[in-house]
Amino acid sequence: MGRSPCCDKVGLKKGPWTPEEDQMLLAYIEEHGHGSWRALPSKAGLQRCGKSCRLRWTNYLRPDIKRGKFSLQEEQTIIQLHALLGNRWSAIATHLQKRTDNEIKNYWNTHLKKRLTKMGIDPVTHKPKNDALLTTQAGSNYSSSKSAANLSHMAQWESARLEAEARLVRQSKLRSHSLLAATSAAAAQLATRSSSAAATSIKSWSASSSINVHVDLESPTSTLSTTALPGNPISSSSHDHHEDDRSPSIPHMFEFIKDISHHHRHDHDDESDDWTVCQLAADHHSAINDHHNHIAVASGGTISCCSSMEAGEWTLNNKESSNGGGDDDVAEEGFISLLLCDSTAAAGGDHQEHGSSSEVNNNSEISGGGNEKNSNKDSSENNSGSTMTTTNEQHEYCEDKNYWNSILNLVDTSSPSPHGDDTDTPMF
DNA sequence: AAGCTCGGCAACCGCAATATG
DNA sequence: TCATATTGCGGTTGCCGAGCT
């Protein structure tokens, strides 16, 4: 049968820890390690439950915890990651070394959230709060499309991201089990399974973000189909799109990330990885804007986007990279790092392998910025005339980019660096 | 000086996922 | 396979100190 009953909570102390208790816990863990938290309190002579001990250790006593004021860099990272991950504090904490999820959560709730709110930014969606107002008041096509774009951009972003994450995870698993994963049959099977995983993820995400997304799990072509429900302008579908679905939001997000990277690592000699990712991102957006595009993320952080006139079918450009198999955490870590253009963290990801013909990025266009990149790709690969759309997108894209710039700039100005060494770092 | 309000943070609670017998 | 323990996580609470009236 199951395990022995859990510790009863009768007679166990609650509330703030005393220095003596801290000392007892520390001494015990230093000597024996924590092992089983359930058994620890009695062994250590503490009148606490194991859960309380674990919490105290992980959030306070652990020696590798950095305490004190958050640096500007840390604030930036938290905001970035929160925009990407939402309230997944533990995931955010993994990217902020020596900070606990609890600390980050508290800091967000007490500082950053309020700051964004003050600035008129919804801290949940990271979008201007007056979007809805604009929609209802203006009523013009442009305003509608802009607000729809703003509404949909996070949805599209999340959908694409989750799909990519799921694909990375699946492929990592697959590769760890077989060296023959590169066969087309395996790739097709992988695409099938990852679509389901992504669909589940998207369902989960849409539930948490109060956005209704219908996921068609029955597609015989392994198509991830997310269709906006009536009244919801959001659609991340690779098919079944409507006019309103076109959104410049993805590039603005990626441009945002690109700028973060450019700023954060401006002293790096080789920024090609950053640009590669951002170029990929821009292409990714182009692919999404095209109603019939394929997006594939191969293992090791290699992202491939390929365009097709065929109705939304997800394909996988299965590129074996040199870093071998990895576990799910590594895959996710790599992808998040990829999103953050953090080549240091993503060093194992070989995402510089981007020159294959199946991929659409082209570093020679870097200096042109995201707009040019998008339109270049659109014009070269999407022959379904999108000139007008592209022009509008560029306009809205610039506004969206300004939005992200303004967020971080305002955060910057409203939060003077405790170190006073960030004056040369315009956030974006 | 006393009372009140508010912000920050440590800790608790409850749920979900995972591990184990 | 199932039941239960354990662990991890995110939301929430409540204490405490600082600032204000």
Structure description:
Residues 9-61, 62-112 form the Myb-like domain. Residues 238-247 have a biased composition (Basic and acidic residues). The chain is mainly alpha-helical and 428 residues long. The protein is 53% helix and 5% strand. Among the domains are: 19-61, Arc Repressor Mutant, subunit A, CATH 1.10.10; 154-386, no CATH class. The chain has 14 helices and six strands. β5 (293-297) and β6 (303-307) form a beta hairpin. α10 (249-264) crosses α14 (387-414). The longest helix has 37 residues, at 141-177. The radius of gyration is 23 Å and the shape is globular. The protein binds a DNA duplex (21 and 21 nucleotides) through residues 1-6, 14-17, 36-38, 50-52, 54-56, 58-60, 87-90, 101-103, 105-107, 109-111.
Key attributes of the depicted protein:
428 residues, mainly alpha, Arc Repressor Mutant, subunit A, two-stranded antiparallel sheet, globular, disordered N terminus, disordered C terminus, DNA-binding
Short description:
The protein has 428 residues and is mainly alpha-helical. 53% of the residues lie in helices and 5% in strands.
- Helices and strands, in N-to-C order? HHHHHHEEHHHEEHHEEHHH
Q: Overall mean pLDDT score?
A: 51
In whole angstroms, how far apart are the ends? Answer: 58 Å
Helix content: 40-55%
List segments where confidence is low: pLDDT < 50 over at least 5 consecutive residues: 1-8, 132-156, 173-329, 341-393, 410-428
- Indicate the overall shape: globular
